[in-house]
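Moderator note: this is an archived Q&A kept for reference. The question asked for a predicted structure of one protein chain; the sequence and the answer are reproduced below.
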Amino acid sequence: MRRRTLLAAAGLAVPTSVLLGVETALADMPAPAGSSVPLDVRLARARALFDTGRYGDLLGALPDLLATAHAHIRERAEINYARLSACYSLTAQVLVKVGRYDQARLTADRASLYADLSGSPLVSAVAARELGIVLRHQNQAHTAQRLVLKAASSIEATGLNTQAQAAAYAQLLCTTSYTAARAGDRDQALSMIDEAARAARDLPAVAPAGRLFAITPASVGLYQVGVHWALGDAGAAIRAGGRLRQEQFATAERKGRLHTDMARAWWQWGKPEQTAQSLAAAFRVTPAEVRDRPSVRAIVKELHRTHPRVSGVRELARVVLAEGPRTGAR
């Protein structure tokens, strides 16, 4: 591990003031600032911030993005409801990343409400997935499974005649598989991930720009890693991850997730050196995936406590734990 490489990326934790700005906006939506940039362009830029792991910048941009999207629904057009739902789904995603599950639940609920008003099955599927993820984090795995499976059934009923529909179906199956795994439902988890792999088999290796569910066959492979370690089968998780390469993923967030999921599996298997190597790889790709996610920071902390002499552990702890997470994550 290169000390200079890690230190250069340090200091990217999200300031609490930025997170509080989002929470304030959720309670009392501000007036939009009046940007001349079209809302679709701003939403695409916000998604890019998430994809590159720039969670602090994204949180800083969200209050005015949400305010602007709210102003648009005065016209009561279905597309405007869809845009507002997308803004709330993105907000839920980043709030989950930094461990703010109560606020994520609020935004996921709003995403579902406006998705229903949009009349779009795909937009509703996005919102249902985000709400399901929040419910899982709130220890409501069975409710989350029912919700996401219902959304998957709605997408399946379309006939899966387009790649966008097939991608949505595969993504929802991946999500419910992982939820089932976290709940200890082995049969459901393995059945769903196998079905997701079949549904994604003919999807392109690189998802088209702008697709709501940018899932690929490699993405399903990444979910397999998570499903197996969640089921306690670290060996199967490592084997699944061994078939994947960072280059198969288009965004820094997914590249980082590959490394953090592998770190979880190595840690579960009792391999501290490989755990440290995987966490360092994740940090080099996107520091926020390690510094701002409470569950990953916890691994770094325990790794440093129990194996401080393993190569790279002290340096990893220095850049990840030197400052408390300024996100207020828990």
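Archived answer notes: The longest helix spans residues 78-97.
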